[in-house]
Amino acid sequence: MAKIEAAVPGEGRGVSTYAGGVWSWITTVDHKRIGILYFVSGLVFFLVAGVEAMLIRLQLAAPGNTLLDPATYNQLFTMHGLTMVLFAVMPIGAGFFNYLVPLQIGARDVAFPRLNAFSYWLFLFGALLLNSSFLFGGAPGAGWFAYANLTSSQYSPGHGMDFYILGLALAGAGSIVAALNFIVTILNLRAPGLSMMRVPLFTWMTLVVSFLIILAFPPFTIGIVFLLFDRMFGTFFFEPLGGGDPILWQHLFWIFGHPEVYIVVLPAFGIISEVIPTFSRKPLFGYPVVVYSGVLIGFLGFGVWAHHMFSVGLGPLANSVFAGLTMLIAIPTGVKMFNWIATMWGGAIRFRTAMLFAVGLIAMFTIGGLSGVMHSSPPADLQQTDTYFVVAHFHYVLFGGTMLGLFSGMYYWFPKVTGRFLDERLGKVHFWLTFIGINLTFFPMHFAGLHGMPRRTFTYPAGLGFEGYNLTSTVGAGITLVAVLVFLYNLIRSLRSGEPAGANPWGGATLEWSTSSPPPAHNFDRTPQVRSRDPLWNDGVGPPAAEEEIHMPNPSYWPLVVAGGALTLAAGALIGLPVVLLGAAVMVGGIYGWAFEPIHG
Q1: Mean pLDDT throughout 199-224?
Q2: SS (H, E, C) 371-426
Q3: Total structural domains in the chain?
Q4: Taken in order 471, 476, 481, 485, is the CA torsion positive or negative?
Q5: Of the candidates 588, 390, 330, which has an alpha carbon nearest to the alpha carbon of residue 580?
Q6: Quick check: 453 and 460 in contact, CB under 8 A?
Q7: Is the pLDDT of residue 7 over 50?
Q8: 50 and 143: one domain?
Q9: Are residues 401 and 369 in the same domain?
Q10: Confidence band (pLDDT; 50, 70, 90) for 17?
Q11: Which of 140, 213, 215, 358 fits a disulfide with 272 by CB distance 3.0 to 4.6 angstroms?
């Protein structure tokens, strides 16, 4: 990955350097390069999801529209949800995890660098496999939640749902592998003196999210394996005529699906918990409370899944329990909001673009959270479920909350990653267009839903009162698209000719700002010694450890080979047994080569 020629600039020694070329990126096991790969891949899929969303909005802009036929519309809203949540927001968050966590804890890399590369290739191959379904008879069209029995061979003929099963199995395995890696890294590779109650909030949220992934993804994996057997081998896990239960799928899906909300939101919370103190010039107010509330959100997130199922007839006792837990989870979320506001109170606030997006997250997530509390009441939820009121709610949470947080992180850490600033004037244009676009797009959906407009319907007749709300939402979506284009222009322009940034241009308090921008391959010349929670603000970094001999792992193509074998095996389920056997053989050979490959040169 990197040849270490010297470790301590200023003592007559050089600095570590990266090999160039495409092959170096394909074989990299460096956490920073893998973070960039995740980010770029997630950004590409974010654009794909945006195109799908614009087609949906154009179809709904006027009553009786014929831009899309019903089958294409079903495929687009299904793939929009899957792509946005699993292949855009999660990978961009994983990009932050990979790049920043080792830097924030004073480590040279993650615990298992080759496993880290393997997780990226599994995610990428799973995403590509699922999106390739458009080329092979059509994408899945049963919604991203894939309710049984819409997913049976009778109601979803063709291979669309098979691509759903196999693509998500690959990507989900990659997420589980990555989560295990980050848990081990955070618990075992922290710098001396960096106790858990000194760990930066972003790293804390990474740890919580990692536990959520390893607990939430297996039930969903079980569900899609059951679905695979129902579709390919004629079993009856979800088929009532054979003794199965379609409600079982809803339980297995939402046991994953609701923690998934926090899997994508908590990284954004962690980001603004770093941004707000930096641009307020104050330590985070109530740091232990923010940590504990994040942990509590993760814990309670597993006890609220059935509020997605109030309309299926679970009974008054189950509905009451899940309603109470849903109301309860609003408390630690609200606590975080007050902590962020208290941090800003009395601070010397600098409204740079990163800070604007952080404040925007608080506003947008609060709106989404208020309607979420409304859904916690079963009688109210029965009226709102499957209407555009629900669509408004989760888009305020997932786009208005999560994406604003991720954009905040992009503007905040872009100088660290590239050594250059993103343009602040373009950044503010990006923020205000995004803020206006989000509200124009999603706020009218509340009223459309209250007027009875159903979800997942490709058109509607005139005269029902939906026209104005839908046209406004489509205009808002267009403004949001312009905002994204402004960001892309800013990104490309700043990469080429952005203003140079120093090691700590914002005056941040955490360890990643103590190294150069961009950091060397080995991150730190010497392992830092941490003495306080905000080490760069209050002389919290002690004398460095004794001079160390630095060993970095070699680049490796074996993670790509094993992931490629897994992709071949998955594709073989659609093609035939010989391809399955070929994929299995490649995987076994790749694992053998991986196991006996020298770690260091």
Answers
A1: 97
A2: HHHHHCCHHHHHHHCCEHHHHHHHHHHHHHHHHHHHHHHHHHHHHHHHCECCCHHH
A3: 2
A4: positive
A5: 588
A6: yes
A7: no
A8: yes
A9: yes
A10: low
A11: 358
DSSP assigned state of 3: E
Q: Is 65 exposed, middle or buried (0-12, 13-18, 19+ CB in 10 A)?
A: middle
What integer pLDDT is reported at residue 5 of this predicted model?
31
Question: For residue 585, what are the domain limits?
Answer: 557-601
Residue 313 DSSP code? -
Tokens 């992931």 belong to residue? 563
The residue assigned the tokens 């109650």 is 197
Mind listing the pLDDT tens digit for each residue in 478-531?
A: 999 999 999 999 999 999 999 999 999 999 999 999 999 999 999 998 889 999
Q: Kindly give the residue spans of alpha helices, DSSP state H, lying in 107-159.
A: 113-131
Residue 41: name the closest of 125, 162, 156, 116 by CA: 125
Strand partners of residue 542:
529
Question: Cα separations (Å) of 80 from 9, 56, 72, 145?
Answer: 48, 9, 12, 12
CA distance 539 to 547: 21
Residues 351 and 451 in one domain: yes
In this prediction, residue 599 carries a pLDDT of 72
* Residue-wise pLDDT tens digits, 152-185: 999 999 999 999 999 999 999 999 999 999 999 9
CA distance 196 to 105: 10
16 assigned to some structural domain? no
d(CA 361, CA 435): 10
Burial class (CB in 10 A: 0-12, 13-18, 19+), 8: middle
Please give the structure tokens belonging to residue 557: 């193509």
Domain containing residue 323: CATH number: 1.20.210.10
Q: What is the pLDDT of residues 358-402, one digit of tens each?
A: 999 999 999 999 998 899 999 999 999 999 999 999 999 999 999
Is 8 a member of any domain? no
Q: Which residues contact 415 (CB under 8 A, 6 or more apart)?
A: 421, 501, 505, 506, 517
